[in-house]
From TrEMBL:
One of its GO terms (biological process) is methylation. This is SET methyltransferase domain containing protein. Keywords: Membrane, Methyltransferase, Transferase, Transmembrane, Transmembrane helix. It comes from the Eukaryota. The keyword Methyltransferase applies. The lineage of its organism: Eukaryota, Sar, Stramenopiles, Ochrophyta, Bacillariophyta. One of its GO terms (molecular function) is protein-lysine N-methyltransferase activity. Residues 61-272 form the SET domain. The chain crosses the membrane at residues 7-29. The keyword Transferase applies.
């Protein structure tokens, strides 16, 4: 009997200890789930605050912020005809730098970006504002300097690595000029903004991925900058300045592209033509199809693009094949690796981007080299919206 009693006592103690261990873990879990919900709420709230903010400014708006294929974006709230206004934002609501009023300094070394980042940083530091509250973290570009060696090596392109180094040096130079106070071009900047290099870098990366340009004006346009990119032939729209009859009120309008947009579909903006290296360095993504992609052959310095891919001399075609065969993996291997990575739960987004870059480059070289492929894997990659389709039924040897 007494043995049984002490067994009960023992079980009781073990249960109490387990309960004590369990309660904090419940607390930790609830506080974690609260944080997740809170972050989600904050994102939802800041989006709706931004919507209210632009509506109060008297903006025209036929779209709303929504969850899309590329994360957050703009969704049409009514059917829009080609060329129809989707959104109109007063110029006074933008954060802008007029390069023509700041001397030649602004154009040298793209200093306008740092000047605009400085303005954005002041807003970020001066507390809550619907626009800055709605900004996402900067995109995962290699210029931020946080890609692993494995991801950088996966690019398999030494020229691109040099370009990334240059972009890193450019960011550091801008930071030195503005934050370290060696050269303060904007006399309005507060002393606080000069002492936060990390925040400045974040602002600079946001500026590099969100600015639109009208002549000499470089602008961050609330709400309009939520539009994700699609090229014009994929339905991307465009923007333009519009003036009231008295010319006193100036707005910036987002217009539907030549396919129009159906209610409920995503509204895209054509960000313009860029090489894949530029997309990665400034925007941290690669467009599904990039007709402006370009590979310069190392020996001849011949530029290969999707528009000259079928007009090349045999000499250049042969050089494409040599370059293609230099890699350790074939195009098919790379596509297979990408599919494998995409199926994983935990993904290295930097490595994935590097692999996409490599696939895109090899696809162009392969098409230019004129090598034949019957690979079903290769065709399926293109059908699923991989890279450029022109001449894509070729494969490296
Ligand atoms: C001007 S912002 C567009 C709005 C952004 N999605 C947001 O949540 O605020 C540009 C950034 O959006 C993302 N983005 C835009 N278009 C994209 C696309 N076609 N594919 C993938 N990401 C895209 C990239 O991170 C890019 O740097």
């Amino acid at each position: 009997m007494s043995g049984l009693g002490s067994l009960y006592q023992y079980v009781g103690i073990v249960l109490s200890v387990l309960l004590l261990l369990w309660i904090p873990s419940i607390n930790a879990w609830t506080s974690y789930s609260h944080q997740v919900v809170a972050r989600h709420d904050l994102r939802e709230t800041s989006a709706s605050c931004l919507q209210d903010f632009v509506d109060q400014l008297g903006s025209v708006r036929h779209c709303e912020i929504g969850s899309t294929k590329y994360g957050r974006g703009l969704v049409a709230t009514k059917d829009l005809e080609p060329g129809e206004t989707i959104l109109r934002i007063p110029l006074s609501a933008t954060i802008q730098i007029d390069a023509s009023q700041n001397g030649d300094d602004m154009k040298l070394d793209d200093s306008w970006a740092a000047a605009l980042a400085n303005k954005l940083m002041e807003r970020l530091q001066s507390g809550s504002c619907p626009y800055v509250d709605s900004l996402p973290p900067p995109p995962p570009t290699p210029a931020r300097g946080d890609w692993s060696t494995q991801a950088l090596e996966a690019l398999e392109d030494s020229d691109f690595l040099q370009e990334i180094e240059q972009a890193i040096r450019w960011r550091n130079r801008q930071c030195e000029r503005y934050v370290m106070g060696r050269l303060c071009l904007d006399e309005d900047s507060s002393s606080a903004t000069q002492k936060n290099p990390q925040l400045f870098m974040e602002a600079l990366d946001l500026v590099s991925s969100r600015t639109i340009r009208c002549g000499d004006k470089f602008m961050l346009v609330p709400f309009l900058d939520m539009a994700n990119h699609a090229s014009q032939d994929q339905g991307g729209g465009y923007y333009q300045l519009e003036y009231s009859p008295s010319l006193q009120d100036v707005t910036i309008a987002l217009k539907a592209g030549n396919r129009g947009v159906q209610a409920g579909n995503e509204v895209f903006l054509d960000y313009g033509d860029r090489r894949n290296e530029e997309w990665l360095i400034y925007y941290g993504f690669l467009p599904d199809r990039n007709t402006a992609e370009c590979v310069t052959l190392p020996e001849s310095q011949q530029r290969i693009t999707w528009s000259n891919v079928h007009m090349l001399d045999d000499l250049y075609r042969a050089e494409c094949r040599v370059l293609l065969n230099k890699g350790d993996t074939t195009l098919t291997d790379d596509i297979r690796s990408l599919k494998h990575i995409e199926a994983l739960e935990e993904r290295d987004s930097h490595f994935e981007l590097a692999l996409k870059y490599r696939i895109s480059r090899k696809s162009l070289l392969s098409a230019a080299g004129g090598t034949k492929s019957s690979s079903a894997l290769f065709s399926s990659f293109f059908e699923e919206g991989g890279q450029n389709v022109a001449g894509s039924s070729t494969e490296q040897e």
